[in-house]
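DOMAIN: structural biology
WANTED: fold as tokens
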Amino acid sequence: MTFTSTARILFFLFVPPLLLLGGCGTDKNGDHVFFSIEDDIALGQQVARQVDSTYRAKGQLLERNSSNPNTRRAYAYLDKIVERLLNSGQVTHRDDFAWDVKLIKDPDNLNAFATPGGHIYVFTGLIQYLDSEDQLAGVLGHEIAHADQRHTIKQLQKQYGISFLLSLALGDNSGELERITGQIIGQLAGLKFSRDYERESDDYSVLYLGGTDYYACDGAAGFFQKMQNAEQRGNPPEFLSTHPSPGNRVQNIQTKAQQEGCATTRSGSSNYEQFKQLLR
């Protein structure tokens, strides 16, 4: 569909007020959400294609159909973790979003991120840094929560505003959309969420893990405890430059676990070291 200049002006003038009146929702943090679930999915697909292409070109994207048996085994292990979390009964958009997970080979990057629509990326440096499957499940739960609670789209919406919404809604300004998508790729891994969103994702991580009846529901606390120890030694990982200090987060996660009455003992999985070996 091609819009005339007049149509574009009319769209810009009248669609945002309509959205404000009836097309948006408000989350418990008071943030308006102008995007529909379908918009999340559409944007997520575009961003995921670009992310895949970017890291594939660098030779860092570990392909699911790789001829390397270790890579295939690593994906099978990772998929089981994600499947348990998604089947916890706590994921709001369990059946709406893609929830595919991909590995990026970068031993120095202690990070993971999720796009709108539930495309999850995990850097191998994070996997090597963690000590247990419960800790990895906790971090994955945190990232799933960012997508499931639509934090990513809300944060991007704040940054790009109506122009971003307009480009996505019109769908015919491919050059502008490609430019914006390129910017998003560069920001996702380092996207700085508000403290409210980080706290909410920590809380949901507890709910997701607790709902599995398999993982220690405070699994994410182990990751932040490691971060806190590194910070106290004066050698904070780069991860901390885009995430709130882990100091209070360990206590908050453990408090949430106590409130929920969920199990905080480790799953006892003895295969995590073997999983790490697959990615070395």
Observations:
- The first strand starts at residue 25 and ends at 26.
- Residues 37-57 form the longest helix (21 residues).
